[in-house]
Amino acid sequence: MKRPVLVLSAIAVAGGISGILVAEGAGPEPDRAEGTAIVEVAEPDTLTDEARAGRAAFDAVCAACHGTSGAGRFGFGPPLVHRLYEPSHHGDAAFVAAAARGVRAHHWPFGNMPPQPQVSVGEMTAIIAYIRAMQRANGID
Questions:
Q1: Cα-Cα-Cα-Cα dihedral of 9, 10, 11, 12, to 10°?
Q2: Quick one: angle between helices 121-137 and 49-61, nearest 10?
Q3: Mapping DSSP to helix (H, G, I), strand (E, B) and coil, where does residue 116 land?
Q4: Which of 89, 126, 130, 139 is most buried (CB neighbours < 10 A)?
């Protein structure tokens, strides 16, 4: 008699967790078209010179997967303007390492991110400045 209750409880918990993940943008919704933005992103009023350079580098290298302004793209890559990538969870060094070595999929269902060896350290520093500015403009500190 206890086993059916445990199984039903496990199913309920799993369903609740998956509902939370989708509600918080941690996974794609099945009715979203491939390539569309995962989150809405507000642009900051101003960017520093470094962040403007970072936007140009981001648009050239990162936006194909991570979307315009870091909003992510269903079927391609996660949004970087998201609480999962706030500085206290993914520091700047994590972004540098991701570009240099790639990343195994762990928060999102998009597969592994390949290394981006064409991105220089200077470009990566500017990209990080841009992403952090975008995060701040969207309430992610």
A1: 50
A2: 100
A3: coil
A4: 130
Q: Specify the DSSP element, H or E, that contains 123.
A: helix 121-137
Query: What are residue 111's phi and psi, to 5 degrees?
Result: 90, 180
Q: Are 84 and 107 in contact (CB under 8 A)?
A: yes
Structure confidence by residue, pLDDT tens digits, 82-141: 999 999 999 999 999 999 999 999 889 999 999 999 999 999 999 999 999 999 999 999
Confidence band of 24 (pLDDT split at 50, 70, 90)? very low
Q: What is the pTM of this model?
A: 0.77
